[in-house]
Amino acid sequence: MHRHPLLLGHRGTRSSKTAAENTLAAFDLALRLGCDGFEFDVRRSACGHVVICHDDQVQGITVAQAACGQLQSLPRLADVLELYAGRAFLDIELKVPGLESDVLVALREHPPERGYVVSSFLPEVLLELRLRSAEVTLGFICDRKKSLDRWRELPVEYVIPKYPLITSRLVQAVHGAGRTILTWTVNDKKTLQRLADWGVDGIVSDDPELLVNTFPA
Hints:
The chain is built from 8 helices and 11 strands. The chain is of the alpha/beta class. The chain has a single domain (6-40, 78-214), classed as TIM Barrel, CATH 3.20.20. Helix 2 (77-84) packs parallel to helix 3.
């Protein structure tokens, strides 16, 4: 029997017709369905707010240029941590540089009790975070084979490749280095089961219901 992987909803959920991704409703739904936690994306608006959204534009407005009063519907990082730090594993993906101080302050104010990782595709973001804190838990996200090996040189605890890059040998190598491996974004049962059999520590899916039904409690 393989052990149960950590089950994480991608942006909360991307499969719901009623809960939009990267919203409190999406995060609530992922947890209600039985996920251990969820992944979400973080950016900064021009007025300094640290907001939750994936794309660099929302409702035709460039997030980095959004003034106060615009994009008020977007959740803010501090609010998400306050609401969920006690009941969810949080995969906090930083989409841009310059968020490091805000993230560290938010984590100190609302330390996640169920675990967390601050993740990014951007090595410079991870290096800056490590320079500022030896304690923060970091993860390197990768979707290209040519850059996958960078996990070995980066000061991260989590390796987070896109699922087509995962092999049983990679899982063994990551575990052999004393690190944890998550993967994304897996939306079919056969692949979910194969990855779990290989020993992947956590799986991110657009469909929390499929995820939980594949690995019932």
